[in-house]
Design a protein that fits this description.
With 202 residues, the chain is α+β, with helices and mostly antiparallel strands. The protein has helices at residues 2-8, 14-63, 120-124; strands spanning 89-92, 135-141, 157-164, 175-183, 189-191, 196-198. Strands 1, 2, 3, 4, 5 and 6 form a 6-stranded antiparallel sheet that branches. 23% of the residues are buried.
Length: 202
């Protein structure tokens, strides 16, 4: 009986405690890595969704037929309506945020309010009012300004993109998200099937 009682009072050995501590340490490291990856993924989702929205705005603007306003005399004919891409927009913000957020300026003529019916963000009918992690841009023209993006066939094209420095490292290593569109030989606007991503979590 005494031997059984002594056995009942027996505690954990040092080896058992060290094994438990090691297991807890491994689980904690995995949890920290998972949370960091989740937060980075949530931030990069902002860029993917926004680049998609800018692309949709470019397509919608192209599909709107525009014609110059004119007062016609008797027997005169107006110019035919045309489809065209919005002209380029200034990047917002001016510099890539380094590990933080930027609050867009919603005043007239600032940030996403800069442009008109044929140029920039108002032409795309796109604006953001909440703080953003990335610098967003929209280029339209006959060449690809971002050489790291997938190659485009020569012709009228647009590039919607986001550039970020989520971890704020120095010298900066940027994450880049781009989506291209191009007017083909038939006058139709063709858009890339998905957003091209480089260094997603930088």
């Amino acid at each position: 009986m005494r031997a059984l009682k002594r056995y009942d009072r027996r505690g954990f050995t040092l080896v058992e405690l060290m094994i438990v501590v090691a297991i807890i340490g491994v689980l904690a490291a995995l949890a920290i890595f998972g949370v960091r990856r989740y937060l980075a993924s949530a931030k990069s989702s902002e860029a993917k969704n926004t680049v998609g929205a800018i692309s949709r705005g470019a397509v919608a603007a192209f599909e709107r037929e525009t014609a110059p306003s004119a007062i016609l005399g008797a027997g005169a004919t107006s110019a035919a309506a045309t489809n065209s891409l919005c002209a380029s927009a200034d990047p917002v913000p001016d510099a890539v945020p380094a590990g933080g957020k930027y609050q867009p300026n919603t005043a007239a003529g600032q940030d996403f309010e800069l442009g008109n019916e044929t140029t920039g963000w108002p032409c795309l009918r796109f604006a953001m009012t909440q703080p953003i992690y990335f610098q967003y841009h929209y280029y339209a023209g006959d060449r690809v300004p971002n050489q790291s993006a997938p190659p485009a066939v020569a012709g009228t094209y647009f590039e919607a993109g986001a550039v970020g420095n989520l971890d704020g490292d120095t010298p900066p290593v940027y994450s880049v998200f781009t989506r291209l569109g191009q007017v083909d030989a038939n006058g139709q606007l063709v858009v890339a099937t998905q957003v091209h991503v480089e260094r997603e979590y930088e």
